Amino acid sequence: MQNIVLEDLIDRVLKEDLGTGDVTTISIVPPDYTTIGFIHAKEPGVVAGLPVAGAVFRRLSPDISFQIRVREGERVQAGQLLARVEGEARAILSGERVALNLLQRMSGIATYTARLVELIRDFKAKIVDTRKTTPGLRILEKYAVRVGGALNHRFGLYDAVLIKDNHIKVAGSITRAVELARASIPHTMKVEVEVENLAGVEEALAAGADIIMLDNMDISTIIRAVELVGGRAYLEASGRINEHNIVEVARTGVDFISVGALTHSARSLDISLDVGEMKPL
């Protein structure tokens, strides 16, 4: 993750929570008190985001010690110690919710991603994410997807071409849309075209698309698309794919399976922070 982007994100989420100050902690905890906090998993899952949680606490107090006790991407059990945080008590209490929110969110995404990756491990298809992310948290959520074992699709609108139905309407055809895109992008950038039927597959292939996205196609149509393309372009299955149907989709022989649910529907992992005795320096 880019440090400057991460620092800006942490500043924004802390400002959202703290505003002009943590009135409860300031009124109760003396400024010179220290404490030790222990972060535990309350349910099994795959951990992602511990460095981010540590960065939250250190943003409030640079002298805080954040000791990570498990690896990123490690499968943990309920009750397992994930990290130990020690230092200024006010900073630990004030940063607790933001640090846990990010850690729980990222670990939930990594856990769900790892579950899907495991389901299709015997097939060639690779799982990729989408842009259906929480506004402002995309860098963290896409990082969590990678920790869970899947791949990132384009990060934003600027790093790859994805021609969708509305673009095709404006251009007049898939062929013309691909021509227009090729004329204005670097030769190193790939062009992907979203299609809804086999006629669209044929036109996208003839137009020279690098990747063809099979949008909301049934299994039999996907199988026919794989046969039709015959390896001349990458094929990506997309649309309402989850743990209940992903194996069937992977079995068709597609190269990629995009799953929006990785980031828009993953449940946060339950993680807690408990502090010990608070004492003056």
Model description:
α1 crosses α3 and α3 runs antiparallel to α4 (89-119). The model has no long low-confidence stretch (mean pLDDT 97). The chain has 11 helices and 13 strands. The strands form 3 sheets. Strands 6-11-10-9-8-7 form a 6-stranded parallel sheet. Strands 1, 3, 5, 12 and 13 form a 5-stranded antiparallel sheet that branches. Strands 2-4 form a two-stranded antiparallel sheet. The two termini are 34 Å apart. It has helices at residues 3-18, 23-28, 50-60, 89-119, 138-147, 165-171, 174-184, 198-207, 219-229, 246-250, 261-264, and strands at residues 33-41, 45-46, 65-68, 75-76, 81-88, 126-128, 161-163, 191-195, 211-215, 234-238, 256-258, 271-275, 279-280. β9, α9 and β10 form a beta-alpha-beta unit. The chain has 281 residues and is an alpha/beta fold.
What order do the strands of the largest sheet run in, or round the barrel if closed?
Answer: 6-11-10-9-8-7
Shape: elongated
| Secondary-structure element series | HHEEHEEEHEHEHHEHEHEHEHEE
Main beta sheet? 6 strands, parallel
In whole angstroms, the N-to-C terminal distance is: 34 Å
Structural category: alpha/beta
Q: Care to count the β-strands? A: 13
Helix share, percent: 40-55%
